[in-house]
Amino acid sequence: MSESRIRRLMPVVDMALEDERKAAARLGEMQQQVEQAEGRLRDLEFYCSEYQKGWAQRGGQGVDREWLLNYQRFLTQMQTAIDQQQQTVRFHKLGADKAREQWRQRYQRLEALRALIERYRQEARVKADRQEQKLLDELSQRAFAAQRNLS
User: Given CA atoms 134, 136, 138, 144 in this order, what sign does their dihedral have?
Assistant: First the structure.
C-alpha cells in the first residue's frame, strides 16, 4: 500500500522540486539585481564625492558666478540621481525579499513531501518486517510441529 502511495506522490514531488528550483533561480536573479543597483549607487556616490573634492580645490583658486551656478546645478542633478538610485535599490530589495519568501515556501513544501514519502517508506519497511516475522514464526511452528510428529 505504501509503495503505491509513494509512486502516486512522485509526480507531485517532481513538480514541487521544479517549482523550488525555479524559485531559487528567481531569487538569484533578484539578488543579482540588488547587487547591481547597489553598485550603481556606490558609483554615483563616489563620483559625487570626487566632484565635491574637485570643487574644494577649484573653489580655493576662485571661481566666477557661472561656474558656481553650473556646479550647483550639477550637484542637484547628482543628488537627484542618487535619490532615484536609492529608490531603485529599495525596490529591488523588496523584490528579492518577496522572491526569498516564495522560495522558502516552495522549499518547505518540497521538504514536507519528502518527509511524507520517507514516512510511507518507513511504514512499508515496518509492514514488510512484520510480514517476514510472521512468516518466520509460521515456519518455525511448522518445523516444531513436524519435529514433534516425528518423535
Answer: negative
Q: Which three cell numbers stand for residue 39?
A: 553598485
Nearest to 46 by CA among 34, 54, 56, 35: 54
43/89 Cα distance (integer angstroms):
13
Look up the pTM and report it.
0.74
**Contact by Cβ (8 Å): 17, 113:** no
* The pLDDT value given to residue 49: 92
- Provide mean pLDDT across the span 23-50: 97
Q: How far apart are the C-alpha atoms of 101 and 103, rounded to whole Å?
A: 5
- Cβ atoms of 20 and 107 closer than 8 Å: yes
| Cell numbers that stand for 90 in this block | 529599495
The secondary structure element, H or E, covering residue 99 is helix 65-150
Percent of the chain with pLDDT over 90: 62
Please choose, from the candidates 59, 83, 85, 84, the residue with its C-alpha nearest in 3D space to the C-alpha of residue 70: 59
